[in-house]
């Protein structure tokens, strides 16, 4: 008796008991569908966050200052001096004063991010100008009311006109547009294309923020990030007298944290998957045992007309494999539909992981072999005389 | 064809040994029609299981078609049953989910015959028992007599040297029973070796030779007409 013949007999047996076979499969279907959907969800959201973080640049170090009267202790001059003293690890530093304000030009207006900084910010963020010029340090020294606008601002306020040399109203103040930022993110909302860069001193005045709480540092290389962060922390501890007044962070560090969170999440998912497939497997074993008892007489007949132990074992094992295989396939279809739906709904990007799909399908087949073995073995060992007498 | 020498089967029940079959020496030549008759508990079922290679003896020898089968493994016995023996049981023993034709095909599946050949051999066997028009029916759609004829077709399909029938008319009304006995007569005339096991003297009388068994031993062995 060939495998193909055993396969045909298994198909026949499964289809002659459709409802029962389906209910038996359900454990595997739910297990596989849940696993691949959950994995896709985890990978999708991780991808989303990773993309955001890596846009920030791995050599970028962010410094946040807490507490009041920060500028009494730390002036821009001392910080610049510290940076140039540590030029071996720090390539650039730029202060940041940000606020959200309404911007007007003619009849058009919109709300956007106003960022007060210095020329070095263009280096740190790798975003120069596509037209005109960036703000210069002298603008800051003279508290000039000049602005570099993002591509989204240009499109919304000036449409097809050339904005350079024209004026915009930020809050109550009139600014002259001197440049347009390079477009980096298709002019989308809440991106680097949706902001206005002005001199830091001017920003402090119009946002009524006398204190500078944020600084961006650029390390000379990714290898020097750690050293740079240590020196910055040391310097700031000296200035403030304790370590609780500031925070020094880096995007690579954030990625590491995120990766370890993802890893934990995947481990938990793997555990849940294992448990649900185990439960599905026990269900299959249970039904197969019932089926062996029900079909004792049939097994006796088959043995009487010449079926060997191996033939009976193969028949029941293939039945178990077919149930879990079909269950796994249905699970994959349902799971992929769910992933597609999640992607379509825009919750997280749809990520189809062939590895996890193959893995969960493979595990469901393995469950079939493991949990089908015991009933199949029991069936194959039945004594034909006893089996034929079974009512 | 069948040769047994001092064939015995003993069972241990608690401390006592039950001699279900005790020193049975028997010779059944080819093309004969033999009935083995005895009351229940006489050991005829044990003899049937041994002759049918469903069980192995405690001691003694059993030569089937010239082969020593008393020391064979389960797998070897399965192969012998498949090739050398056709069973007909009292309770028909058809697989309820399979059609008449598929039931007849069953022994051929285990001897590795191709699907196409199985179909034609099974159809041929069904024709011999006169059930060609019922080949796609399930057992539940057939009468007892018809079911037994399907079972006989299944026993014939591999052309085994021996057909073993255990109370083949036990579950049938007397009319269908007579039909089945006539069929056995016909099969015998066609050259088949038939061993019929029964407790019914009338049915036993249909054979050429009657072997009487009591308390695990042969007590009488006579040729009939």
Topology:
The complex is a heterodimer of chains A (391) and B (225).
Chain A (H helix, E strand, L loop, with lengths): L2 H13 L2 H38 L4 E6 L4 H4 L2 H10 L4 E16 L2 E10 L2 H5 L4 E4 L4 H5 L4 E4 L1 H8 L8 E4 L2 E9 L13 E5 H7 L7 E6 L5 H16 L5 E5 H44 L1 H9 L4 H37 L8 H27 L3 H6 L2
Parallel strand pairs in A: 3-8, 5-7
Antiparallel strand pairs in A: 1-9, 1-10, 2-3, 2-6, 2-9, 4-7, 5-8, 6-7
Helix pairs in contact in A: 1-12, 2-10, 2-12, 2-13, 10-12, 10-13, 12-13
Chain B lengths: L1 E12 L2 E13 L4 E5 L6 H8 L7 E6 L2 E2 L5 H11 E4 L11 H10 L5 H14 L15 H13 L5 E5 L7 H16 L3 E6 L2 H4 L4 E6 L2 E7 L2
Parallel strand pairs in B: 3-8, 3-9, 6-7, 7-8
Antiparallel strand pairs in B: 1-2, 1-4, 4-5, 9-10
Explain this structure to me?
- The complex is a heterodimer of chains A (391) and B (225).
- Chain A is an alpha+beta fold.
- Chain A folds into two domains: 3-52 and 256-389, no CATH class; 60-220, no CATH class.
- Helices cover 59% and strands 18% of the residues of chain A.
- Chain A has helices at residues 3-15, 18-55, 70-73, 76-85, 120-124, 137-141, 151-158, 200-206, 225-240, 251-294, 296-304, 309-345, 354-380, 384-389; strands at 60-65, 90-105, 108-117, 129-132, 146-149, 167-170, 173-181, 195-199, 214-219, 246-250.
- Chain A has a six-stranded mixed barrel.
- In chain A, a hairpin with a 2-residue loop joins strand 2 (90-105) and strand 3 (108-117).
- Chain B has one domain (2-223): 3-Layer(aba) Sandwich (Rossmann fold).
- Chain B contains seven helices and ten strands.
- Chain B has helices spanning 44-51, 74-84, 100-109, 115-128, 144-156, 174-189, 201-204, and strands spanning 2-13, 16-28, 33-37, 59-64, 67-68, 85-88, 162-166, 193-198, 209-214, 217-223.
- In chain B, the strands form two sheets. Chain B has a six-stranded mixed sheet with strand order 6-7-8-3-9-10, sandwiched between helices. Chain B has a four-stranded antiparallel sheet with strand order 2-1-4-5, with helices on one face.
- In chain B, strand 9 (209-214) and strand 10 form a beta hairpin.
- In chain B, helix 3 crosses helix 4, helix 4 packs across helix 5 and helix 5 (144-156) packs parallel to helix 6.
- The longest helix of chain B has 16 residues, at 174-189.
- The two termini of chain B are 22 Å apart.
- At the A-B interface, helix 1, helix 11, helix 12 and helix 14 of A face helix 2 and helix 3 of B.
